[in-house]
Design brief:
Helix content is 39%, strand content 12%. The protein is α/β, with parallel strands linked by helices. The protein has a single domain, classed as HUPs (Rossmann fold, 3-Layer(aba) Sandwich), CATH 3.40.50. Helix 1 crosses helix 7 and helix 7 packs across helix 8. Strand 2, helix 2 and strand 3 form a beta-alpha-beta unit. The radius of gyration is 17 Å and the shape is globular.
Length: 231
């Protein structure tokens, strides 16, 4: 089987991306980051998903972005709550983690090169998302060009780096429908930016609101809603 490195945060999008890559015939090596995020429950969710979705390998890599700070996800800054979908879609919120996807994709590129593959999957989305600049198609295209200039395997012509973004043009509802089609169990995922100590979602942060929008559009219940209501 062809090998691929798949970024796996533990959220619904990355789980769907991993399941998509598996359906495409790739042996998937899941890569999760412990980067000092306040929503650390997603790391355990990633472990569950890697096992459930048949990843060929799973690496949890420690990269201390909390030492840099600058984000509500890696510092004491408050996570925005109760914003409208219009507010979520305008501007770059304080939950943006400086250069996060650049750091993550660079590490994925390094692992892919040692695995002798150029295929990397990432579940970025540019339709229903929080305005992060490193989720846009032009960013992905630029990173892919750079990767083919920067790695020994690509320069020697042994691989061609391809950043796969199967969810980039989907709505949240479309992602939920695709997840269910691919056999992803949403109950295994974690999306909330500000969960309680038991990992129950807050229901009010941008990630929770976008997730709710997706399940409502898809016309199916979110199994994590019951956990939130019992918070």
């Amino acid at each position: 089987m062809k090998r691929a490195v798949c970024l796996l945060s533990g959220g619904l999008d990355s789980a769907t991306c991993l399941a998509f890559a598996r359906r495409e015939g790739f042996a998937c090596y899941a890569l999760t980051f412990d980067y000092g995020q306040r929503h650390r429950h997603e790391i355990e969710a990633a472990r569950r998903l890697a096992s459930a979705l048949g990843a060929a390998g799973h690496l949890v890599l420690r990269v201390d972005l909390a030492a840099i700070g600058g984000s509500a996800l890696t510092s004491s800054l408050a996570v925005p709550k109760g914003r409208s979908l219009g507010e979520i879609g305008s501007g770059i919120p304080v939950t943006y983690v400086p250069a996060r996807n650049t750091v993550f994709l660079a590490c994925a590129l390094a692992w892919a090169e040692t695995l002798e593959t150029g295929d990397i999957f990432i579940g970025v989305n540019a339709i229903d998302y929080s305005g992060y600049p490193d989720c846009r198609p032009e960013y992905i295209e630029a990173f892919e060009r750079m990767a083919n200039l920067a790695t020994k395997a690509a320069v020697e012509g042994r691989v061609r780096v391809k950043i796969h973004t199967p969810l980039i043009g989907l709505t949240k509802g479309g992602i939920v429908r695709l997840a269910l089609e691919l056999g992803v169990d949403p109950a295994l995922t974690h999306s909330c930016y500000d969960p309680d100590e038991q990992g129950r979602p807050c229901g009010a942060c941008d990630a929770c609101l976008l997730r709710r929008k997706g399940f409502e559009e898809a016309g199916v219940p979110d199994p994590l809603e019951a956990r939130r209501e019992n918070r």
